[in-house]
Amino acid sequence: QVQLVESGGGLVQAGGSLRLSCAASGLTFSSYAMGWFRQAPGQERQVVSAISYNGGMPYYPDSVKGRVTISRDNAKNTVYLQMTSLKPEDAANYYCAARKFLLATRPNEYEYWGQGTQVTVSS
To answer: Residue 20 in contact with residue 9, Cβ under 8 Å?
Structure first.
């Protein structure tokens, strides 16, 4: 079955950096777009970044643009999220998700989800 396993979360000071990883199995990774989402308590799940199956033209919302970079390694079936200049408002549970081929920005457009990794940012 399809599994997405996130790692790399933790506690970081404001201004610091983290790199999240999401290892995929049970699917043809190179045919899937991957998204990173986050959800803070009491808030809706929102997109942080997304990348299409071929790695072209990643998406970043304004809230993270310039601070976040998504990348994928199809040989390792892994997608990464490099986050820099972290702010307290970036604290959330971060999820990766997969859908066929082209990136999307809404959670309900993704087929598979990981369990999440917690990011805490201290001020």
So the answer is: yes
What's the pLDDT tens digit per position in 66-111? 999 999 999 999 999 999 999 999 999 999 999 999 999 999 999 9
CB-based contacts of 29: which residues, under 8 Å, 6+ apart? 74, 77
Q: Max CA-CA distance within the chain?
A: 40
The number of beta carbons lying within 10 Å of the beta carbon of residue 72 is 23
CA dihedral 103, 105, 107, 111 (to 10 degrees): -10
Token digits of residue 123 = 């001020």
Q: Is 66 exposed, middle or buried, given 0-12, 13-18 or 19+ CB atoms closer than 10 A?
A: exposed
CA 26 from chain centre, in angstroms, equals 19
Using CA atoms, how far apart are residues 39 and 57, in angstroms rounded to an integer? Answer: 24
> CA torsion angle for 105, 109, 113, 117 (degrees, to 10)?
20
